[in-house]
Write a structure and sequence with these properties.
Blueprint lengths: L2 H12 L2 H8 L1 E5 H5 L4 H4 L17 E6 L2 E5 L4 E3 L10 E3 L17 H10 L2 H6 L5 E9 L2 E7 L6 E7 L2 E9 L4 E7 L5 E3 L1 H11 L6 E9 L2 E9 L8 E10 L7 H10 L16 H11 L6 H8 L3 H13 L3 E6 L2 E6 L1 H7 L3 H13 L2 H13 L5 H10 L8 H17 L3
Parallel strand pairs: 5-14, 10-12
Antiparallel strand pairs: 1-3, 2-3, 4-11, 6-9, 7-8, 9-10, 12-13, 13-14, 15-16
Helix pairs in contact: 8-13, 9-11, 10-11, 15-16
Amino acid sequence: MSLIDDNWKILFEKYDIENEIKKNGRFYITADQIREVKEPRLMTKFDTKESLPSVFGNKLAILPVTRGKYVIGEFDLYQDFPILKNDIKQMACAKIPDYLETIDINDIRSEAGAINIMGIASILDDFLGEYNMLQTVSGRMGSGTFSFKVNGFSSGVEHIIDVQNSQVEIDGGFENENIFAIIEGKNVVHSNFLIRQLYYPTRLWNSKINKPIRPVFMVYSNNIFRLLEYQFTDINSYSSLQLVQERNYSLEDIAISPEEIKDVYRSVGIEPEPEVTFVQADSFNKVISLVENLNDSPMSATEIAELFGFKERQSDYYFNACKYLGLAEKNKDEEGVKVYITPLGKGLLKLPYKARQFEYVKLILQHQIFNEMFGVFLRTGDIPDKYFIANRMNELNICSENLLVRRASSVRGWLYWIASLVN
């Protein structure tokens, strides 16, 4: 259990929060009350469902309502990202002017940097079907006063929330003569997101300007800009969020053919299995995202958990996945044990898009189980099911029998990622 979990357990016990919610439908807690155990900003930043404290269970969530007050209740606040079945088919090419010498497209490390380059390369213009979108706002600001409806978890239950000058943070606001686009940016891959990151800014600017507002979520990872445009079909309803469109962009050549992937497969030799826990990390995109973030600085297991919205044991799963490929290792410094990117990982991230993907594929396919199962895919056109994979893993004595099917799901996830590279 993390320190945040422990501190929320203290608050729940001290203020009898669970029973108060059962009686009143919600519980208001002040920043000063939270500050009794830890800084409120750190105690209330839950950008994914998985990052919520254990004591919240599966239904409770928290929202800011003023500068110094929060409300906890059975609010359905998160939205799953659509499953990304095939990156490349949705890819469109975008360019930056040749005369911009200060931009290195293989070294875009921050959310702000990705948003800046997205504007320079006219990616946002293309995505929205607009011209001359200029960044006009960013940073923290007051929300203004408004009320909204939000769904609960029980059928037909709807809550009314009043907000008065809560803090809002906008990563980027782009405007032209026709529209205003609100950008929420991430440089880490998550499975879901907190709708408030789009809703509060939309309500703020809806009360201040007359132009249509188009909320956009941007995820930058593995040299890909993933853009998702949403809309609130009822401006007074937090729960009316709908996906309008999704598209992916790259600043590089990303066309990968089946023959190129086959060439990589043929070139790989099988290496001995490393002495590390076998992979239990279904999303290879998150493995890539962890490597990219480790390139900025080493991280503790707690910091990885906070970055991804994981529980700490999941941090170990994804560290072990990186270590399995030779991309990360643990070392102890004066601050404790941290995860570091390896020289192999640093070198890989300097490669252009296609070469980088091929290197990831090589690192995966040099392991016998992945190599054999990818060979089955090439022969049959289908990724083997997890029971077929688990049976072969058992024959290879890869892990204990009770873990086989779970670990086989990770093998399938990585094979799907390789297959998705083909354009």
